[in-house]
Amino acid sequence: MIKLDDNYRHKGLRKQLVSLLRDKGIKDERVLDAINTLPRHYFLDEAFMQTAYTDVAFQIGQGQTISQPYTVAYQTELLQIQKRDKVLEIGTGSGYQACILSIMGARVYTIERQKKLHDKTTQLIEALNLSNIRQFYGDGFEGKATFAPFDKILITAAAPEIPPKLLQQLKIGGIMVIPYGEGVDQIMLRLTKVSEREIETEEFENFKFVPMLKGLAR
Ligand code: SAH
Fold it and tell me: Which residue of 5, 71, 103, 141 is 20 to 30 Å from 180, comparing CA positions?
């Protein structure tokens, strides 16, 4: 049974988190509004409820994490989300990022390679009644060719390469946000697909993500 209880205390903590993110440099008010709207404590195990609104990453099982709110806000801002954008997310994890995109009006397609996480998050997202999110159990390196092309692609795990199939599935004029690199840190890249042959690359801050892995985990 999933308990969805959002009280005035949670709402107050969310406001504080939003003002912290604003202080850290997040400017897109639509991103901040979505973070203010979505109860992050729904996405954490009960043991972590108290700290759901601090700006840190948390374990969500299977050795995976829900990204730090700053990271979610940062990646979402770089995506320049427009209403109705078709967005492919690699690494559903807790589902928090997918729900933020959905609240901003995007049509979300999200892929997770860990079966247990996929199943757990599917239940939660159904309970939240957000109809524009489709979840898939699969390998994100493959993307989702059946639903391509995408306006935006967001990778939420450390990518050792720029996955060629994902670039193919991006629209001309589309944007991919990708934490790139195999070391301890990854550099956040924003790739714009200018034409079939030309990719414009912008470099941003360093972050720490769990690795993007090939194949499926049961
Ligand atoms: N977006 C998530 C953060 C997830 S952490 C959130 O909001 O909670 C990164 C996730 O990427 C992990 O759950 C991990 O299992 C998943 N992942 C890693 N490699 C992947 C791949 N090749 N395909 C799909 N998911 C992958």
Answer: 103
